[in-house]
Amino acid sequence: MKSANCSTQSRAIKRVEVVTEKQNNVDDSQIKDFLRSKKVLVFDQSASSRKALFDAMKVLGCQSSNLFHANKLENAAAIVKAEKPEIIISEYEIHGQFGLVLLEFAKNFVEEIVFILATTTASEASVAEAAEEDVDGYIVKPFIGDKLQGYLRRALVNKISPPPYIAKINDGKAAFEEKNVDEARTIFEEALKLGEKPSLAHYYLGQVEETVELSDKSLDHYDAGLEFIPNHYKCMVAKFEYLDKAKRPAEAYTAVQDMLMYYPITPQRLGRIIYLAIQTKHFSDVLEYYRVYQDLDHKPEKLQVIVKAALFTCGKFLMKRQEYDEACQQFEKSVLCSKRNPELIGRCVEEMLKAKQAKHADKLLKLFSQQDIITSKYKQLEFRVECFRLTKPAILRLGVRMIEDEEADLYVFQKVISLLEEDGAERLIKKYKDMGNRIYPDHIELPED
Amino acid sequence: MWIKNSSLEVEVVFFENTTTHVVHLEEGDSSKVSAFEVSQILEGQLKVRAPKTACVIGHQIDIVVEARTKTNEWKFRSRAKVTEHEKLNEEEAEVVIDLHNKNDIDYERFMQVFESLQDEVSQLFNAIKGN
Predict the structure, then answer these.
(1) Contact in structure between A402 and A435 (CB atoms under 8 Å)
(2) How far is B104 from chain A (nearest CA, A)?
(3) What confidence category does residue B115 fall into, taking pLDDT thresholds of 50, 70 and 90?
(4) Whether B120 and A7 lie within 8 Å, measured CB to CB
(5) Which of A130, A275, A433, B30 could form a disulfide with A135 if both were Cys (CB 3.0 to 4.6 A apart)?
């Protein structure tokens, strides 16, 4: 029986090197002391989950009077403002309200927060997103009875008594945030000697160097970090971002490919990766990224715009290669991503018409919504598609009707006039040329097709 | 080669109080599913949020629990005895049920799903943290 985890999916994911947690030597009494005066907010709509978390926190040492709960973000925010809880345990999402938004809000009121996600959401993307943010623990629901306390304890212990290496890193981060670059550099260099595999220290040294100057000194640090731990997430991401900033797209995209062997794409990064894929002409990858996009729990609007544009660009690339079926599929996906934007549909149809692909143009035309098929733009596109199918008399009748209904564009005028020219209908030619020139002065010529 | 969403949905899909002979949740009845929730998995026990009147201590129940991801599904059926009953609010209670089928291979597989998922999540989380 397959277990419900990502690594048994169809793709082969390399095993992530286990980063073993250091022994913190923190005993229960230290945890009780730490928690005695701390306020805890549980943001969760489930009464039984709240109860389980409250019970576990009380066993660990919290006072009942310091436990608060909320099931709506606005209520949670109000509690944060009033009580300034140092520990927040939150669902990932409740009715479209995201727990990480609460974390960002709480940072304005509480200096040192322990933030733990306790959630049914267990996608790689959400875990990665949480780990990149200042989340201290990620617990999956339903809770496994006697282990809940252990998971909570683990998240707390790293805050109470971090190992010397991590404590040094934290000092360095504090100096870095204060913009004391030289001091930060010194501290991180000291950290190099404390860690068995100091990839994190190298990562921060790279970050320090980037603030001084965008040079390969940073890249050297990221690569040094990857020497210790080849799949160190922060070093991999930093290397990718550095190469991207340094406008080395081919190398940046290679760095992305390496990263994606081990780690999921976060929504924040997906847009940039798609853009790079287009820039480096990895068009076949865009379809894979689109599947990733479809699976996202949360699809930011900016990302939708990028995905839509990328799919359209892929479609155009495939048109150049005369792969019209695949191009049509990409255009369709782009249109669906845009929620059937009529302007985009029009552009897709025009691409197909330029290549004389009437069948595909007609397919794309059907993507117009009901309210848009009564517009002149739709009728003008439909006319062009019909020109491939209808007989000349039928085209002429349709075109004339559109002109009389004032729905004709330049193409319709030109087509009607050219058909009349074949018939030698001088009086009608003059009539429609005059009408056309009033709207499109000096443009009424024969169409090139 | 890309991510799949491995969010795990766990649902009580059937709940019958065999002592009172009342079926409180039929399989396929989506309207009442939200009234039940598995909140904790204990050794040989489940903690379930249920309507306050569904059962009391000492009652026997039949329960079917389903766990689902986008690509897999596990079902576990058991007879159980209610050993704890705590009121959560005016409508709901949290009950602890002792599973009669806890030695079945189905239950072991069911437990494995949750344990391995948490292990994988923790591993990925810690790797990305990079500490």
Answers:
(1) no
(2) 15
(3) confident
(4) yes
(5) A130
